[in-house]
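User: Can you predict the 3D structure for this chain?
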Amino acid sequence: MITQSPINKSLSPNSSFKKDVEPAASPLADFFQETFALTKRLFIQLQRRPSTLVAGVIQPFMWLLLFGALFANAPVGLFGEELNYGQFLAPGVIVFTAFSGALNAGLPVMFDREFGFLNRLLVAPLASRYSIVAASTIYIMALSFIQTAVIVAASAFLGAGLPNIAGLVAISLIVFLIVLGVTALSLGLAFALPGHIELIAVIFVTNLPLLFASTALAPLSFMAKWLQTVASLNPLTYAIEPIRYLYLHRDWGISTPVMDTPWISISFGIVLLILLAFDALVLLAIQPLLRRRFA
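Assistant: Here is the predicted structure, written as C-alpha cells:
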C-alpha cells in the first residue's frame, strides 16, 4: 500500500495549505515612492554641490542692490504712483529669478541622458516614467520658493516693503504657475534637443530677451509701441504686474484690475486664468514628446 508523503500531500490540489501573499502596492503609491526617491536624489546632488543654490540666491540680491543703486536718484513717482525704483524692481526680480531657475530645469535631465543614467531609469520597472518629470518639477519648485523667500526678505530690508499674508500667498501662487509652465517647457526641450550645448544655447538666447521684453525693469509706458505689444504677450509680464500691484496695495480681490495692456485692463482673476492657460498649453505641447520618449 502506497501512502502519500506529507510533502506530496501539501502539494496536492486538495491540500488545505495556503500561501501567504503580500498585497501588491497600488500604482499611485508606487508613483509617489518613485517620485520621492528621484527627488531625494536631486537634493542629495544639491547638498554635494550647493553652489547652484548659493548662486541662485546671490544673483537676485545683486540685481536688487545694483539696479536699486543705479536708479537711486530717480524722481519718486517716475515709475508710476508713489514708489521708488527698489519697490518697482522687486517683483521683476522675483519673477525673473523663478523663470531663470525653471528654464534651467532641463539641464539635470539632459546630463542624465548624456551620462546614461536616464536610459537606466527608462528600462527600470517603474510604475510610471512620469515620476522622472514630477521629481524634476518638485525640485525646481522647491528651489524657486527658497529663492523667492530670500528675495522678498532682501527687498523688504532694502526698502521695498512687504505684502500682507494674503499678498504673500498670492505671490506664491503666481510663482508656482509661472514656474510650472516654464519647467515643463524646459523638460520638453531636454528630451527634444540632442545635447546640453543646444539646451544652454536656447537658454541664453531666450533668457535676456524675455527679461527686456517684459515689465521687469521698466513700465509699459516707457517702451516703444511695438515693444509694448510684445511685452503684453509675454507670460512674465502677467506674473510681474500682479505681484507689483500686491506690493503697492493691501486691498485687492479677484476682480481687482492689476495691469493695463495697450488694449484692455486685466483683473487679478484673469491674470491667473492666463497663467493657467499658458501652463495647460505647454503641458499639452510636450505630451506627445514625453509619450514617445517614455514608450
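The radius of gyration is 25 Å. The chain is about 70% helix and 0% strand.
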